[in-house]
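[job 0412] stage=complex_fold ligand=D-malate status=START
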Amino acid sequence: MNRILVTEAVKGVAMDQLRDEADLEVVFEPDLWKDPESLVRNIAEADAIIVRNQTQVTADVIAAAPRLKIIARAGAGLDNIDTDAATAAGIVVSSAPSENSLSVAELAMGLFISLARNIPSANQDIRNGNWNRAAFMGSELSGKTLGVVGIGRIGTMVAQRARTFGMKIIAHDKFADPSAPHYTELDVTFVELDELLEQADFITVHLPLLPDTRRLFNEELFAKMKPSAYFVNTSRGEVVDEEALSNALKRGTIAGAGLDVRETEPPPQGDALVGTDKTVLTPHIAAFTNEAQERVVEAVCRDSAAVLRGQEAEGFFNFPLPKR
Ligand code: MLT
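[job 0412] stage=complex_fold status=DONE, emitting structure tokens
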């Protein structure tokens, strides 16, 4: 019988249905990602593996998996999977690239408003027994400039929502076609990154983690931003040099930051970005809505079952059928 190894908390109706399939055995080990040695042992018997972003599917893990036909990633980013090694081994890599985009875009909007209106600090202040209206003067989003770094699917959804708030949209994206109708409809002005950083009141990052995006936001880039700027990252923590961000907040180079993702998750004890009220922080929950997770889990369960039954994966990154 084909065995599907689930190494993180991937749950829901579609997973329950997968577990009921007579021709498939689902081994649900939601903490296995924490133990790489045990992962290597367990994957030897697996025909499919379903992961989120915490399981490191390295070349060594792939080499230990002679039966593996599909690596299904319950989410969008593939930075925890050695896709080159999987492709060379003939293993399908599939993901749910668009299923959680809307939820991520909505959280980015939530972070803009939280920062601009001091919602977390005001909430905490009331709970401390105060009623300090004057301490929480905020600013409107309307009339402000939003700089979108990476205006693909999620960046576009953020831009659409920001437009309805009356924001002006500027964007930087090496791969986007500025003449695409959806950019024209949103009146997006494409600019160089430096220009975006200099002009934007809010900056939102929607970049994949790649060698040239790792620690892209460094001391030099923060120095180009307005002292009133708010920086929001819901993509990958590693695109930010956190020490540089922390210094920028301390020195007043920028006004605040909203972060759903961190260089190290969870961040270490005594972390400077946790210790300042200039940040609004969430624990990598942008994709964690009931609706998005239903779509994501449905997609990875569907693709895993399909590939094991000799059918094509829909959300494939490399090829739809295994080559081994
Ligand atoms: C994604 O890449 O889809 C999100 O960051 C959520 C996740 O990693 O699970």
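Residues 101-281 form a domain with the Rossmann fold fold (CATH 3.40.50.720).
[job 0412] exit 0
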